[in-house]
Write a structure and sequence with these properties.
The chain is an alpha/beta fold. It contains ten helices and 14 strands. It has helices at residues 5-10, 39-50, 63-72, 102-114, 135-144, 171-184, 208-219, 236-239, 253-256, 270-279; strands spanning 21-24, 54-57, 79-81, 86-88, 94-97, 118-123, 126-129, 149-150, 163-167, 189-195, 198-203, 226-230, 244-247, 261-262. A six-stranded mixed β-sheet has the order 8-7-6-9-11-10, with helices on one face. α2 (39-50) packs parallel to α10. The protein is globular, with a radius of gyration of 18 Å. It starts with a helix and ends in a 5-residue tail after the last helix.
C-alpha cells in the first residue's frame, strides 16, 4: 500500500510561534554515531536554558542509559525512558510506570523466538538477557553503560516488563516484525523500531507521544509550545503532535513527513542547527 506522505505532512497541526520546551530523542538525534555529545550540542543546550526553554530527553533506552547525557547537559527536568514506559525525575525516581501484560510478553517472545531473533526484557532498572554472547549485547553494553542480568529463562520474569527489545542484524526482518507483531498486539502494545537493528515493544500507551505529553504536563507547558525532535519511527508519535516537529536529516522520508521541518544529520551538528534555526527564534 502506498502512503501519501504529502497528505500526512499537510495534516500536521499549525507550526508554533512560541516554544517553551524541547523534547529530544537521544540516539540518532542528540548524539552522533560515536554516542557522544558534540560541542555544538552542549552550546545549543546552554543557549536554550539561557532563553528560558526547558529540555527533556526521551528515549527507548533504560533510565540508566539516559542519565549519562542528562548529567552531561546538567538538566534538572524529568525524562522519559523505555519510549515513555517510565517517566523519571531528575534524581532517578520513577514517577510513572507502564508495563506489558504477561500474556503480551509471552506472545511477543514466542513470535521472536520462532524467527530466531535475540530478545531482551527491561523491568524497571534491570536489563534481562538469555545469551550474553549474542551479537548486539556487547554493543548495547558499551552504548548505554549498564550491565545485563543473565537469566536462563524468561518464564519467571514475565511480570512488570516495561519493554521488550528485539535485536537483529537483518533490518528487513525487523521491519517485517514491526508490522506483523504490531498487528498481532493491536490494542495491547506499541511496536516500533528504534534503529535499523532494534525493535521495541512497550505498553500500548508507552510511546514518545505519551512521554512528550506527560513531560509537558509536569512542567505546565501546553503541547502547542513544545518542540519535538527525532529520527526514527518510534519518534513519530511525538513529532505528529508537537507544536514544532523536527526531523533529523538522517530520518527516513516516512518519518520526516510527520515533522514540520527537517534539520541536518546527527553526525553533522544537525541537533544544534535545529535549535539555532527553528527553536531559539521562537523563545518566549
Amino acid at each position: 500500500m502506498t502512503v501519501d506522505l504529502d497528505a500526512i505532512h499537510a495534516a500536521l497541526p499549525p507550526m508554533a510561534s512560541t516554544i517553551r520546551l524541547v523534547v529530544s530523542d537521544i540516539d540518532g538525534t542528540l548524539i552522533g554515531p560515536d554516542k557522544k555529545l558534540a560541542a555544538s550540542t552542549h552550546q545549543a543546550a546552554k543557549q536554550l536554558a539561557e532563553a528560558g526553554i526547558a529540555l527533556c530527553l526521551v528515549s527507548s533506552r533504560s533510565a540508566e542509559g539516559i542519565l549519562r547525557y542528562h548529567h552531561e547537559l546538567d538538566l534538572k527536568t524529568p525524562f522519559g525512558a523505555l519510549n515513555g514506559g517510565l517517566i523519571v525525575s531528575p534524581d532517578d525516581e520513577i514517577l510513572s510506570h507502564l508495563v506489558l501484560s504477561e500474556s503480551t510478553v509471552q506472545s511477543a517472545c514466542d513470535t521472536l523466538s520462532v524467527h530466531k531473533i535475540d530478545t531482551w526484557l527491561f523491568r524497571d532498572h534491570d536489563w534481562l538477557i538469555r545469551d550474553p554472547g549474542a551479537y548486539y549485547v556487547e554493543h548495547e553494553r558499551k552504548s548505554v553503560g549498564i550491565e545485563p542480568v543473565v537469566v536462563p529463562d524468561f518464564g519467571p520474569y514475565l511480570g512488570g516488563v516495561g519493554k521488550i527489545m528485539a535485536a537483529s542484524s537483518n533490518p528487513a526482518l525487523l521491519q517485517r516484525m514491526e508490522v506483523e507483531i504490531g498487528a498481532m498486539l493491536t490494542g495491547q502494545a506499541s511496536v516500533h523500531r528504534s534503529s535499523d537493528y532494534y525493535l521495541d515493544i512497550t505498553h500500548k500507551d508507552a510511546n514518545k507521544g505519551f512521554a512528550a505529553k506527560a513531560l509537558a504536563k509536569r512542567l505546565g507547558i501546553p503541547m502547542e509550545e513544545v518542540a519535538c525532535i527525532g529520527d526514527m519511527s518510534n519518534d513519530v508519535p511525538m513529532l505528529g503532535i508537537a507544536g514544532l516537529g523536527i526531523a533529523m536529516g538522517n530520518a527516513s522520508a516516512e518519518v520526516s513527513a510527520h515533522a514540520h521541518v527537517t534539520t541536518g544529520r546527527n553526525d553533522a551538528d544537525g541537533w544544534a542547527e535545529a535549535m539555532e534555526q527553528f527553536v531559539l527564534p521562537r523563545a518566549p
